[in-house]
Amino acid sequence: MSIINLIAIDGPAASGKSTLAELIAKKLNYFFFDTGVMYRAVTLAALDNVTDLDNESLVTEVANRIQIDVQPASKQDGRVMDILVDGKDITWQIRTPEVDHNVSKVSAYAGVRKAMTDQQRRIGERGNMVMVGRDIGTVVFPDAKHKIYLEASPEERARRRYVEVQKRGESISYEDILTSIRKRDDLDSSRAVAPLKPADDAYVIDSDGKTIDVVLQEALQILGKPVS
Ligand code: CDP
Fold it and tell me: Most buried in the list 24, 35, 85, 133, measured by CB within 10 Å?
C-alpha cells in the first residue's frame, strides 16, 4: 500500500517516540497518531470486561467490539489529545501501572493486532501523518515514505518515564518502572506477530544522552526538511 507523506516512527517503550512525533507533526503541519493508545485502550476495556486476560478469544472480541476515538484535547491537564472508548474519556486511565503491566500480553494476540492494524491503515490513508508504534514501518505501512526507529538504553528510558509519572503525582519507583520496561521490551520483541524491530530500511536514531532538540534536528535531516 503506497501512502503519501506518512512518517513511521517505531521503537521500544519510553524511547521518546511520541514527543519526537508531536514535534515533527507540529513542524510539518501533519497529524500525529500514537497507535500505542489503541493497544492500551483495548487492554483497559479487557481488564474491565474479561476476568481472564489469558483468554485470547474473549480479549479479541473486546478489541473487535469497542470504538476507539481520538479527539483534540478538551482539557489542559497535560494531555495531547482526548482518547475515547465508546464515547467515554479514558485518556489517563490507559496510563496506569495495571495497563502497563498487561498491555504487551494483549498486544501479542493476532486477532487484536488485526483489528488495530485495519483501523490504523484506514486512518493512515489520509496521509500527512506521523504514526507512532512498534510495527508501523514493518507491518502497518511497510511502504511508508520515511521510517525512523528510535532507541535508547532501558535505564535512560526508565529515567524519562520516572520524570513523567512524577509530574503526574503518581508514586511508582524508578526500579519498578525499569523492571516493567524491560519486561515489555522482552514481550514486544519476542512475540510471533509483528515483533518490535527496526524495518530493514528504517533510519535508527539512538537517543541516549541526547536532548529532544538534538534528536529532532537529526530526524528533520533524515526527512530532508529544513532544520531551523
Ligand atoms: O508509551 P510507551 O512507549 O510506554 O508505550 P506505547 O507506545 O503506549 O505502547 C504500549 C504497548 O502497546 C507496547 O508495549 C506494545 O506492547 C503495544 N503496541 C504494539 O504492540 N504495537 C504498536 N503499534 C503500538 C503499541
Answer: 133
